[in-house]
Amino acid sequence: MDIALKTRTKEHVVTFWEKTQDEEIKRLFPFSIESLEKALTLFDESLREDALSYGKVIYFGGKYAGDIWCYSIDEIDEKMAMLSVVIFEKELWGKGIATEAAEAFINEVFNKYDIEKIGAFTYSNNHGSIGLLKKIGFSEIETFIEDGIESKYFEASISCFRDVADKKYRV
């Protein structure tokens, strides 16, 4: 598959913001950023040496298709980070792009940061995200209601993720 993870730029942040204002995407992904200005501020903060977030953009076939990032990176107490993956080009949903990008990105995050696990939230109606998380080694931890929406929380430890990668790629 022709997938590449590239460095995020301000132009990517603007495109991502515009693409994710789509109503169907909003129903599937728990976004917490209310404005483009806030998204750009968070991007600037992610460039600092002591940033608690780290992300890449996902290209498929030479075209910008989505973002993947970790946030709330904690290398001291919890030794974990939170994962978010969004493919905003809907015609690419269900083609394995997010799976391949997530596997590569998570491996990079586990090598870059001193963490032992990664968590992820998704809405309970986002069957694509739930399937992705389970496929790459995440376990469902709990279901809860937040802001009137049923959501799920998943986690994967570094050992679980590497076990899945070893079986898949015979590393």
Task: Give a brief description.
It is built from 6 helices and 7 strands, in the order E-H-H-H-E-E-E-H-E-H-E-E-H. It has helices spanning 10-19, 23-28, 36-46, 97-112, 127-135, 158-169; strands spanning 3-7, 54-60, 63-74, 80-87, 117-123, 139-146, 149-157. A hairpin with a 2-residue loop joins strand 2 (54-60) and strand 3.
Please tally the β strands and state the result.
7
> What integer is the average pLDDT?
91
Ends: how far apart?
19 Å
Structural class label: alpha+beta
Structural Rg: 15 Å
Helical segment count: 6
- Overall, the morphology is globular
Number of domains: 1
CATH superfamily: Gcn5-related N-acetyltransferase (GNAT)
Taken as a percent bin, the fraction of beta residues is 25-35%
Low-confidence stretches: none
User: What series of H and E elements makes up the topology?
Assistant: EHHHEEEHEHEEH
DSSP helix fraction: 25-40%
Named CATH architecture: 3-Layer(aba) Sandwich
Largest sheet: 7 strands, mixed
Strand line-up of the largest beta sheet: 1-2-3-4-5-7-6
CATH class: Alpha Beta
Which fold name fills CATH's third level, the topology? Aminopeptidase
Domain N-acetyltransferase: 14-155
Protein name: GNAT family N-acetyltransferase
Organism: Lutispora saccharofermentans
InterPro entries: Acyl_CoA_acyltransferase, GNAT_dom, N-acetyltransferase
